[in-house]
């Protein structure tokens, strides 16, 4: 029985990126739908859960993507509300690559700096899809997080949304020019640049633990290889059971499994 | 050479259900098109019949679906008019699962009650896609069929359409509340409930030969397993030759083949 | 690693023809997008080039189709501008089958008549997608080409576009009725009919070196089998490397390879 991934994309064209990674992650066929809104979810999900018997449902899974993270969260919610009892399949949310990229970036950051509890971390462009997930994961790990945005209203709203979703300390800082960013960085030990920067000199989206004036800086794009590994491993896991929900936290666990060193081979070969 | 199923869906999103069953029925690849109208058929079908030589055309087939049975019938007609000589592929119509579900329900009913010639059968909600196909198949088997509907105009129109398509006796009954249904059931021996009921107490869409006040009741959803078996077998048959047209009657024949017991093994093993 | 063909179609429905030939040509999966305009290219191509490492990128390729050749040319240009350094995949343009059909027709013509330098060739309906490509290939081979059209403005514009793209001699002739065509044919030795004719008696779209009143006539549809062979071989070649650009001229080279006789087996079998 083939492994079928139902790909629900909120954007007008289904993500090529996510389709290719789905194939490389182990899906046999990817059934892509573009422009998916909440109203369409019920029929699409019924098609996924009513076609194969409960014991075969781990061969079907759902992947939610698109450029709009909020729309993706709404789809994830609608998908889960359509499930009942054993009539369900595993589902993953990764709108705009936000979860896998944020998980990879934060995992790399934690690997380098260790315990972040009580330490001040700035997420630049923290209102975008990758930024919100990264900020949430850092807050969950105990950091005092601040997200920057050019718009006061948006910054406050997004920070509240992150606190509600992940808990922890997340504040917002309005940054309209470089001088304000310098002030905002006061006291920060960690800086994660979630998207190509808005003209911030000396901060690079590909930074990976660079030291810039005493602030350790990380860029979301500096973790591309690990992000791909996490993404593909997550797709593979979707087909191992029918009740997985892969969102920021659970994708974070997949990343931790991947970072653990393989067990050393036994020093004495087994007899025989 | 891969078995390719061209999936033409009249609805805005191609049915997930039909795509998954197509894979499970043996299609190697499913090429789905949504929002297909009659005007688009010619180019789509030309793509199917002009790409492989006549002797290989049994590896390509067409599956028509969507929520609107009338639109599906029009596509089937347009598809067949595009064929010429050996330039044709097998084609199946199953808008809304109507044919496979109706065939499975009626096959189950005939299996239980035997000959229905001259017996009165009521199809509740008989103007929907499953109801019209079930009513037609029962009329074709010789039953005196009545379909119920809440709307007089629609009921009469649909009954005429069924008689024209399937022959036999099909009348319509307007039922706007439960008391009228009770009257309508007078003299009926068989009741098939084609969709979740409109508040009819004591009749269940999952009934399978339940006896309710002397009327044997059947529900379309009580035959899900057999419906899936019929659906998958039909998809497999599409790729056995290039001139099959699978609609209600021919799908009914597939169901009968599936219900026949396998031939007993020879009592004496062949010598040698 | 599966061979994935990203199929970008400028028409509202992705070509069934091109999807099927893609599978038969060796693509493992075809990812089709319809209604693709230049604005959408960047994200689609990024998905193709950022998902697999440079050494694996030959397993991904792009195929551009649709009924509008100009739109297809614009997509090809936009696709190539998105590539950078080793981040690129092979790409083929065949809007409306124009390149493969024109290449096959012209290859057949050259095979029959040999050197066309300085000879007068008429391409009937030369402003359509197949006609423009065929006229260009003939001009490139040295023929004095004239394309016919019913509209003076269009004919002149298209002839100029062909000269700019392919070089050589291409003029336009306005033909609004049969008598004008007869005059236009004066002095012509070769006639290629690129689409079903507009009422020209005695010229058939399936002609293959027919002799009609001293003019050798060729029809685009007389080369269907060879066109399919060229088309499939081109798809296969896309996956051999990551830097191929298959347009009229390079597809012409593929056709020439296919027309060459296989090398004779050695007359003396190798010892041993």
Rounded to the nearest angstrom, the radius of gyration of chain A is 20 Å
Give the second-level CATH assignment, the architecture of the largest domain in chain A.
3-Layer(aba) Sandwich
CATH homologous superfamily caption of the largest domain in chain A = NAD(P)-binding Rossmann-like Domain
Please state the oligomeric state of the protein chains shown: homotrimer
CATH fold field value of the largest domain in chain A: Rossmann fold
Number of helices of chain A: 9
Which CATH class of the largest domain in chain A? Alpha Beta
Biggest sheet details of chain A? 6 strands, mixed
Output mean pLDDT of chain A.
88
Give the helices and strands, then pairings.
The structure is a homotrimer of 272-residue chains.
Chain A: E1 4-9, H1 16-25, E2 29-33, H2 38-49, E3 60-65, H3 69-82, E4 90-93, H4 98-113, E5 120-124, H5 129-140, E6 144-149, H6 152-166, E7 169-174, H7 178-184, E8 190-193, E9 208-212, E10 215-219, H8 224-238, E11 245-246, H9 248-259
Parallel strand pairs in A: 1-2, 1-3, 3-4, 4-11, 5-6, 5-8, 6-7, 8-10
Antiparallel strand pairs in A: 9-10
Helix pairs in contact in A: 1-8, 2-3, 4-5, 4-8, 4-9, 5-6, 8-9
């Amino acid at each position: 029985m083939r492994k079928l991934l139902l790909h629900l994309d909120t954007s007008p064209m289904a993500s090529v990126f996510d389709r290719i990674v789905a194939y490389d992650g182990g899906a046999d066929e990817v059934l892509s739908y573009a422009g998916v809104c909440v109203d369409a979810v019920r029929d699409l999900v019924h098609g996924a859960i009513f076609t194969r018997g409960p014991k075969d449902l781990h061969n079907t899974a759902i992947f939610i993507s698109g450029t709009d993270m909020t729309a993706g969260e709404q789809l994830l919610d609608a998908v889960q509300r359509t499930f009942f009892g054993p009539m369900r399949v595993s589902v993953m949310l990764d709108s705009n690559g936000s979860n896998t990229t944020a998980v990879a970036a934060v995992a790399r950051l934690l690997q380098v700096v260790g315990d972040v509890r009580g330490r001040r971390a700035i997420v630049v462009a923290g209102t975008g899809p990758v930024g919100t997930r990264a900020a949430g994961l850092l807050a969950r790990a105990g950091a005092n997080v601040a997200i920057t945005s050019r718009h006061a209203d948006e910054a406050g709203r997004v920070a509240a949304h992150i606190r509600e979703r992940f808990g922890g300390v997340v504040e917002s800082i309005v940054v309209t020019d470089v001088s304000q960013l310098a002030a905002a960085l006061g006291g920060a030990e960690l800086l994660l640049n979630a998207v190509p920067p808005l003209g911030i000199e000396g901060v690079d989206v590909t930074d990976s633990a660079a030291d810039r004036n005493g602030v350790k800086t990380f860029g979301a794009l500096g973790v591309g290889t690990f992000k791909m590994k996490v993404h593909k491993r997550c797709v593979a896991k979707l087909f191992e059971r029918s009740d997985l929900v892969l969102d920021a936290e659970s994708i974070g666990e997949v990343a931790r499994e991947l970072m653990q060193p393989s067990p050393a081979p036994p020093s004495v070969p087994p007899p025989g």
